[in-house]
Amino acid sequence: MENKTIVHSNPADYEARSLDTMCINESELKHPWWYNFKYLAVGIVFGVVFVKAEIISWFRIQEMFRLQNFHMYGVIGTAVVVGAISVFLIKKFNVKTIHGEEITFTDKKFNKGQIYGGLMFGFGWAITGACPGPLFAQLGTGVLSIAVVILSAIAGTWTYGYLRDKLPH
Amino acid sequence: MIETISQPWPWYVAGALIGLIVPALLLLGNKHFGISSNLRHICAACIPSNIPFFKYDWKKESWNLFFVGGILVGGFLSAQYLGSNEPIQIHPDLAKELAAYGITDFSGMVPVQLFSFDSLFSAKGLIMMIGGGFLVGFGTRYAGGCTSGHAIMGLSNLQWPSLIATICFMAGGFIMANFILPYILSL
């Protein structure tokens, strides 16, 4: 994949990937693999925030869904406001990446999966008290049994991939 | 300083830092914030099983695996070096409700009475760990994202499908926590 206009070897691949939160914007730059450590650094900050603000706490999630605590609403609400202002500024001033590449956005397309899948994830979120990010942070703090939950989540994703054509979208 | 850091951080600090991850990833390499996709990359890397959904070049998304690896390391570092070692303060109504199900240990981020290797041998533990995890993995991919990809990245970019997904996440959570979880916890 040398550039953006190349025909993808598997057309279904681009389609499937664009439905997802993945980065479908191919970079034309070739970076050594260790450039990925910058994302590791961002992840570390994220993991620390998760733990220190008790976002990975099963109890905080239970309080959120019982309307007993404003904490999680405050966290998510503030994050969306800060994120939205950032995206607005990046678009308005056409800000480039640190490597000088264009920053691109892809519109998400609606499909019924966002309803059915959204409800299913909501069920799982309230049971495990964690979305995918916090699961990894919980494991990091030393709760090793969460590895079982993560493996089950991987199995869930695999099963979705297996049944995908038969599910309503 | 250390004193302040070791206390639990308020929501506005945490929310602002998480919000800043959105521009950080965009500026570092035009990457879009999202975590649940990693579960898919792991499938694509380890067990693609000739399923079209997993037949893509996952190595191009390896940045995301580094990102999630960082979350794991961040969790480890804060538990080791930035901890307050004080039990989490929880709402008295929740404490009372949980006590009725025999959950009285609030010391960890995760209730050890529910999530442990031992509890895998009980119906309750099996449903919560295996069933809950499965729903998270299946649901996020069916919805095309999780709290980060839809609720934060999607809403930041004013995507209405992400708003629908976020509403459904919350609705599912409300239904489960208030109407179904009580039955599971009383098993």
From TrEMBL, chain A:
Segments passing through the bilayer: 39-59, 71-90, 115-137, 143-163
Top-rank lineage group of the source organism: Bacteria
Keyword DNA repair in annotation: no
InterPro entries linked: Sulf_transp_TsuA/YedE (IPR007272)
Keywords, ordered alphabetically: Membrane, Transmembrane, Transmembrane helix
The protein, known as: Transporter
Natural source organism: Aquirufa beregesia
Source species taxonomy: Bacteria, Pseudomonadati, Bacteroidota, Cytophagia, Cytophagales
TrEMBL record, chain B:
Record field: transmembrane: 12-30, 63-83, 126-143, 163-185
Localization: Cell inner membrane
Keywords: Cell inner membrane, Cell membrane, Membrane, Transmembrane, Transmembrane helix, Transport
UniProt entry tagged with the keyword Chloroplast: no
Primary subcellular site in the record, as a coarse category: membrane
Protein name: YeeE/YedE family protein
InterPro entries named among the record's database cross-references: Sulf_transp_TsuA/YedE
Pfam families attached to this UniProt entry: Sulf_transp
Family: Belongs to the TsuA/YedE (TC 9.B.102) family.
UniProt membrane topology term: Multi-pass membrane protein
Domain of life: Bacteria
